[in-house]
Amino acid sequence: MGLKSFFKLVADRGVLPSETDVGTFLAANPDHSVHVDLLGTFYYDILRRVVHAKMKNESIIDVGRPLALVIKDLFITDNLTIHIDRKPCTEKEKARTERQGIREKNMDALENDMSTFERNSRSGVWTRPQVMRRIQKGLREVHTLSVQDKDQLATGLSSVFDVCLCAYEADPCIGCHNEENDRIVISQDSDFFAYERVCILVRPLLHRRRKFGVYDVDNVIQALRLPSHAHLVLFCAIAGNDYSRNLETLGPVNNLRLIRKVAWNENYNKMLRGYLREASKVLGRNAASEEGRFRVALRIFTSGHQTSAQALPLNNEFDSFKQRLLNGKDLRHRMAQQRRAQRRRTGAPSFYIAEGSHRNQFRPVFSDKASILNGRTVDISNCRQHDRPGLKHPPRRKKAKRGNRKNKSGSTKARSATGLKKKVHQLGT
């Protein structure tokens, strides 16, 4: 999820991503190591492929192989390292709780659409395409990639790229990797600005399929008017991220003003205490007790140390919805076959009347999709053919303009003689 409103903050200060061909950009920077946060870059594409494979009971390894070819064709190089999240860490409990709340909300919406689909399937009729698209999207939203899924995905990708299966989250693994040279990171996550070894972030652009924008970290520091990269790290730790919340009533803009007043120190904890002293002046209370909540984020951003958390959910909800969808499709197919067979036995076609239709209601409409025409039938064996012509409206007559008219010279024209005679005749009668 990353830093709260960070990209909007830098965009308001003139730092907009320069859209570029990512393959050409990487080729022009051969002295930088390239690291790809796989789930942070292609999460929804991977989720769509994985859910599609599970609906067909296919192996996830078969998803990784074509995905590797797509990545190679996009980046025009195989000289990069792909990092994959594996187990959850305790420090990211805040972000995990927020995601679980969104997941439960999506699950309620999916339950409503699934009930509609099952009701239609029992009647042997088709469900609207909009509902089916929402069901497919809902299945992706309630699905969670398990550790086994990620292992199989890494196996498929390893035939083309070097793959790093991170112990926990991929962000600290990439940001604190033991390398001397600066690195280019490809990810959607804004947390990478908090790592000193990251010099360039290549971010997928929203609503622009396979288009990327480049953020130079030095340009971001200058735009925010921060004294050093250490101040940017401190700002990322206190401004609301996946590990901790910001101080109440202090948003990104106010925090940015306070960070500029903090003196540089090689010890981040001392810089944090300086920020809390400045925050206490603004809040009117002692904020020193809040130091512990920010130390976790500072430790992650500077050392990458994480601790293990409980295992991910086992996707019981997804498996249940998946089975209900498959059963509903099978039931709808069987019910439709029974209705067609019954129609053939009786030899009488079904006639449907569309509710609110203005067409000739006695004209037969041959259709086997009752859901389109409201599912009502009518027997027309005793009905007389109804072929009366439509009503013809009389031609419209032009209405005479009432009142006086003005001529070109501006004088008022008198009524015509014929008009005056008609008026006199009406008054006489």
Percent helix range: 40-55%
Name the structural class: alpha/beta
Please name the fourth-level CATH homologous superfamily of the domain at 6-224: 5'-nuclease
What is the name of the CATH topology of the domain at 6-224? Rossmann fold
Give the neighbour order of strands across the main sheet: 1-7-6-5-2-3-4
Overall mean confidence score, pLDDT: 79
β content, as a range?
Answer: 5-15%
Number of strands: 7
Tell me the span between the first and last alpha carbons: 88 Å
Low-confidence regions: 365-376, 382-388, 408-414
Number of helical runs? 15
What is the CATH architecture annotation of the domain at 6-224?
3-Layer(aba) Sandwich
- Tertiary shape: globular
Q: SSE order, as H and E?
A: HEHEHHEHHHEHEEEHHHHHHH
The biggest sheet amounts to:
7 strands, mixed
Rg on CA atoms, Å? 34 Å
Main CATH class of the domain at 6-224: Alpha Beta
InterPro entries: PIN-like_dom_sf (IPR029060)
Region (Disordered): 377-429
Protein name: PIN domain-like protein
Biased composition (Basic residues): 391-408, 420-429
Topology diagram in text:
Blueprint lengths: L5 H7 L5 E3 L1 H6 L5 E5 H18 L5 H15 L5 E4 L8 H31 L5 H14 L4 H11 L4 E4 L4 H6 L7 E4 L11 E7 L7 E5 H7 L5 H10 L13 H9 L7 H16 L7 H13 L12 H31 L70 H12 L1
Parallel strand pairs: 2-3, 2-5, 3-4, 5-6
Antiparallel strand pairs: 1-7, 6-7
Description:
With 429 residues, the protein is an alpha/beta fold. The chain has a domain at 6-224: Rossmann fold, CATH 3.40.50. It is 48% helix and 7% strand. The chain has 15 helices and seven strands. It has helices spanning 6-12, 22-27, 38-55, 61-75, 93-123, 129-142, 147-157, 170-175, 217-223, 229-238, 252-260, 268-283, 291-303, 316-346, 417-428; strands spanning 18-20, 33-37, 81-84, 162-165, 183-186, 198-204, 212-216. Helix 4 crosses helix 7, helix 5 (93-123) runs antiparallel to helix 6 and helix 12 (268-283) runs antiparallel to helix 13. 28% of the residues are buried. The model is unreliable at 365-376, 382-388 and 408-414 (pLDDT under 50). It comes from Lobosporangium transversale. Residues 377-429 are annotated as: Disordered. This is PIN domain-like protein. Residues 391-408, 420-429 have a biased composition (Basic residues). InterPro entries: PIN-like_dom_sf.
